[in-house]
Amino acid sequence: MSRAENANLFEVVADRQPFNQDETQINELCTELAEYLNAGQVEEVYRAYLLGAQAHEGQSRLSGEPYISHPVAVARILSEMRMDANSIIAAILHDVIEDTPTLKEQLAEQFGDEVAELVDGVSKLTKIDFRTKAEAQAENFRKMMLAMVKDIRVIIIKLADRLHNMRTLDAMRPDKRRRIARETMDIYAPIANRLGIFKMRHELLDLSIKSAYPMRYRALESACKEVVGYRKEIFNTIEAAIRARLKEGNINAVVKYRQKNIHSIYRKMKEKKLSFKELTDVFGVRIMTESIDDCYRVLGVMHNLYKPLPGRFKDYLAIPKTNGYQSLHSSLFGPHGVAIEVQIRTEEMDHFAESGIAAHWLYKEGENSSTTAQPRALEWLKSLLEMQQKSGSSQEFLESVKVDLFPDEIYVFTPKGDIKKMPRGSTVVDFAYAVHTDVGNNCVAARIDNRMSPLSSRLYNSQTIEIICSDASRPHPSWLDFVTTAKARTNIRHFLKSLQKTEAVSLGQRLLQQSVNLVVGRDEAITREKIDKVLKQYQMADHQELLAEIGLGNRNSSLVAKAMYEIEGDATAYDDTGKPLAIKGTEGMVVSFAKCCRPVPGDAIVGFMSAGKGIVVHQQTCRNISETDRENRKLSVQWSEHVEGEFLAFMRVQVANQRGVLANLAATIADMASNIEHVNLTEKDGRISTIEFVITVKDRTHLARIMKKLRSLQVVNRIWRK
């Protein structure tokens, strides 16, 4: 159908019935919607169905069903969650922009801007060519998440869409089923969990296991059915005992026992390496009461009835999960050695546990949710927006969100007693960024329970964390080796990229000025006219970008200088004549010092431009120079008169094999105002040992003094640099 034909559809759809469509589904949907929507809203839903059916006419699913059956099924999933009319309409139309010639503007005209934005938020990017499928998936994910920040209903519609696709996945090839199942487990089920939509999460994960591991799923399903038979009588006895005790305590409650989901059983067997027969908690008991006070009373009754298992009690009433979930969890030792998992919550909490944020995301004016679901969801959405703004690419953003979606939480305290939820394995730096980005950027150390601790320290439940900051402190690349939270990782990368670009621009300016002076044979200022000339040639909009490319080694400064003055030259080789570039020691992100020879101020040095890294500095006598010279571009460099900072130097010490010799060497190095960064024992026999040190020094003179002091020790036989 062409765009023109589709435009006419909007004019006639109200008077035209779709051809050859079974309306059973839409009739059932409208019947369900009539239970909580008014007649006018139900009529709008039906009108959306007519439009969707006509737009998708002639399209079918792999199963052979008319395509319109899919969006109607998605709408029915949302109706079970009691979503609003616009969400239902958007669900029915969620594929028309992507799969038909229908325009967003046409949807806005017929059903309003809100519906059009929801449909657009769920639609994939189809008009952009991506280099790889992974890049396309990541960019589509970023688009969906940004739309979700504006309106969380976007992701709820997408989850319902994914759920129905998972229910009908059998029509696809096995390899495609496995790929979609893995994507569902990695992204969509965790998002449902993060929003507290547990019923949808459990079904998504069960269907994912069924598609990814069909034989394992069938085996577990069969085993569960078998267990139902011989344990049913035991659980009937347990249920009767619980009801009797609650009646004695005059507590009104609903008691029911539940079977664990297949994915939960599979995960536990895999993580704990257990057989199915070794599992003791395939079934559990859920008790719903009228108030929070009754929840704690029920807990007391249960602990009097059956003995609680130590360390298996969790109070999510006092401290709800990040997604707003609230309940009391306890494991009990029941009759016949059967372990019983008990969940105790109010009926409202149980309803929220089923539908999560969808149960409380209210759109009518004047309504307020009684739970903390909305503020928690908004807080998470705000963090997503911050991550997106600081991510370098869509794929980096996707990986950050994946990290954020798997929180196994711990609870720690600020010095003021405020509770902070952190993923298990979080460090001091993760906590600092959780408090505020500026706190993370400036942190230098921490007090954990009033004891000084390094930034890499892991955090554990109930600790009190005090962050110590300094205005002079900045994030270090090594932090990326131990941080676990997406917020910390994203902010560190953003800061380092910004710092690298600033330093690259500065270095690029120096390199270009040096090359220009060499090309023209005299000192000459770089004019704006010359810069604009090469910017046009290289198709760049900003001279800062050009200088950064030069500083990072991605573009040859000699070639740029020759292009300015229309001089032909070699496109790869640097001119290695003229005044050497001065190395100050403060260009941390664009000048690095080779680990093979570890040059320090005072050494004769040579530099090589390495793409993406900038300048790599070697000693002139380094044995790796010849190999590096072939791969990179040689550049004349020298130490500045005023070198700042400390540098790492390598030395090897041959010592007599005596007790306490390492302590003696370490004390001597410390006395010489140096610090040991790394130590390694490489050779050892009966009398002689060889120890390798990497130490901090200010310059070659400082290193010589340290080596002279060590050589004076009786235990030292020989000492030399690498």
Question: Explain this structure to me?
Answer:
- The structure is a single chain.
- The N terminus is likely disordered.
- β5 and β6 form a beta hairpin.
- α5 packs across α8, α8 runs antiparallel to α9 and α19 crosses α21.
- This protein is globular.
- Helix content is 49%, strand content 16%.
- The protein is built from 27 helices and 21 strands.
- Strands 1, 2, 3, 4, 5 and 6 form a six-stranded mixed sheet that branches.
- With 722 residues, the chain is an alpha+beta fold.
- It has four domains: 212 residues, Hypothetical protein af1432 (Orthogonal Bundle), CATH 1.10.3210; 140 residues, Beta Polymerase, domain 2 (2-Layer Sandwich); 146 residues, no CATH class; 75 residues, 2-Layer Sandwich (Alpha-Beta Plaits).
Summary?
This protein has 722 residues and is of the alpha+beta class. The protein contains 27 helices and 21 strands.
The percent range for helix content is 40-55%
- Percent of residues in β-strands: 15-25%
The general outline is globular
CATH homologous superfamily of the largest domain? Hypothetical protein af1432
List the domain count as a whole number.
4
**Annotation, overall tally of beta strands:** 21
Which assembly state applies to the chains in this document? single chain
The CATH architecture of the largest domain can be given as Orthogonal Bundle
Number of helical segments? Answer: 27
